[in-house]
């Protein structure tokens, strides 16, 4: 009996213990934040509302969002208020994430509601000069408590600008945001980060004493690039001033399924209803100034984790959460009907009708025939197709508007008004808008939503579109003929390119420029190109370039390309013209001049063989580009003035940030006012105030000063006037009849200095990296034929010594050393020089090659004139091979990385050149392309000037391209150059040796 009593006593105690556990667990615990923050009073407001409904809630003060997640996972809290971006990152945690201790995604938590948006505010004193994030470097900052959402947001923003913990002084004491703001106002802090639903700048206690660091669009894109989950919005202070801020949302979430206290589903529903109806009013009683509360679909859509099942069911039932599954199924049905209608239109329907008739009659009798007739009405005519297309597109538009407007509302924290409409209302709105074009005070905000809403009226234009089908077909046929060269449009004031080589595509792009300073021109290419549609692969601007198949010296073909109305012609050195001594190019020039004898019509020609120069001049070619000489000019400058080829490309191209222009003084009233009746130096100083760099004055040629337009050297006297300090007429006053060669910004609202710095960066400003003393150089030059002889001749008087490896046409190779004194010493003479010979040569004469400071590799592989268009990728293979051998040899023998400059004909090889170790790739073809293109504009004087300025020949009297230091330029301008202006080097200097 006693044992029975003991047994019942134990049962009773166990039941009491269980009852006690349930009673204790019945209290719902909600984790919030610091008592001085916003989360804690919000938690108290929720507690008060639920207690009024007999739901007991205890409010826990915590360190912040990360701690709240910990408590939910450990079961010490049942609900929590968490920052949305913190929760998002924790739900997608990875080993590289440094903010959280969890290295695996936290997936178990469940969302209940989005409460209100929180703004990440960067607060500074009202009198602070801090206006940007980068100004926070080395400042005393408060970035929030460790583990809080504020801390994470502050770290995200600072790290996006490259600011690490070592770049600022973090206030180490554990204080609240309110206390931090007080320290900020006392001058003990420079800035305070605070993520809160309250805008502190509108707090009555701080009004007028604080301001925020606004994040502009560039800042926002920078942060979003590193942290794609971030969102931004504009907020206003009490004076109406706008600030760009990062924002997240305060979320109410529940613990994992199976927690110690599993909150009943009906309790969850009651909780959400209370929050929607009463939370905003209850918060006002706490005295917290939360700017806005989340409403509408954002209550559910603003949550960054999966919804609690009870919450999801409630939101869908109330229409708060968008459910487009039914609409998608309806769209699928309409799509199938559309397919059936299209198949019917193409003659398949009759087979289905027969099958359907027999199938129905066997089951439903003769009455089935009526069903078949209805089927034929639905899918058997053009009207039915139009109807199904309309229904399908209408429904797609509705789905697109609902989906994208919902996404827009989420990312911009605005209410989605379309979510409040049912399908019938949406269709009515869409049809009314399509019919009237009136937005009814309701129109999508998202781009896709706008497209969907406006695409319906376009459908109504279907009949009109069909009317153009025939004309479009005809146009396509004409376009196809034009691409094949069988038809050429009648153009006027266009450029005719005669011939084809690998420079033509880039030349077309430059001539058809859309640059604001230069009027681009249309182009017709007259060539015997073997490709079916030679211009098609290059993707030129539609209607800007055309092709005519034929021989360029054929008078009928020249008439076909409307030579009579062309502004100029460019004769290219293609393989047909190179063969037989470039005579075909000469014949083309003769035919062009015979047809257009007037002096205003320009003929620009590439000269492949110098011995034909006099013949081309006799054919009255306006501008002649001797390819070998230009190549040797550029390569000589690569030896003496590294970086000038880069400069030429940047100022001759129409697409770079600065541009060289030739303008009349009277053409621009601002320039006229700045330079008229002023000396060169005074004009230069005045133009610099307009962000213009003056290079030269071109005076109207007087008798005896005219230049032959095909000459590539300055003569004396000359119409060009520059660097007057070394000239007798240094006091010449510029008149409105003169013209100017200038460099100015090619970007709207950007100064020349800014444009220059954007384009050239540190490369041209870093003298240690780019500037060489030519007199200290020991050069190794490898090349072929006349080009290497010209280059060696140009630089032999400047460099300390030159080792020349010259490969001649007769397959002989001479290796010689040129001293600055003028002596020449032959080292070796051989035939069929190869890479192995180069290696043996360096090893054998190690003492000579050890002095080399820079190697220059010219064109070492002869051009195969039997090909119409060389394989551009492999054009530079020989030069690359020599560079690799030299690089490896100097690393092995002398343990140095030899500075190598090499001629480059294919621009696609640029990265390969750098990867191999060639410091100076010299893009010869690109420079020639730009020179040719500039010959078309400004009477060719821009190209002419730079070609003449590159000449090292004794005939070049006036000026030569050379690097000058900023100090020299300052002395010349008689003023100190500071700031970004000092980044602009001068590349022009008078010859040291003047003619007597």
Q: Can you offer a commentary on this structure?
A:
The structure is a single chain. With 996 residues, this protein is α/β, with parallel strands linked by helices. It folds into six domains: 28-110 and 251-317, Periplasmic binding protein-like II (D-Maltodextrin-Binding Protein, domain 2); 115-250, 3-Layer(aba) Sandwich (D-Maltodextrin-Binding Protein, domain 2), CATH 3.40.190; 325-464, no CATH class; 483-621, NAD(P)-binding Rossmann-like Domain (Rossmann fold, 3-Layer(aba) Sandwich); 638-765 and 939-990, Alpha-Beta Plaits; 768-927, NAD(P)-binding Rossmann-like Domain (Rossmann fold, 3-Layer(aba) Sandwich), CATH 3.40.50. 42% of the residues lie in helices and 17% in strands. The protein contains 37 helices and 29 strands. Strands 1, 2, 3, 4, 5, 6, 7, 8, 9 and 10 form a ten-stranded mixed beta sheet that branches. Strands 24-23-22-21-25-26-27 form a seven-stranded mixed beta sheet, sandwiched between helices. Helix 2 (39-51) crosses helix 8 (265-286), helix 12 (349-364) packs antiparallel against helix 13 (368-379) and helix 19 (504-511) runs parallel beside helix 35 (924-936). It is globular.
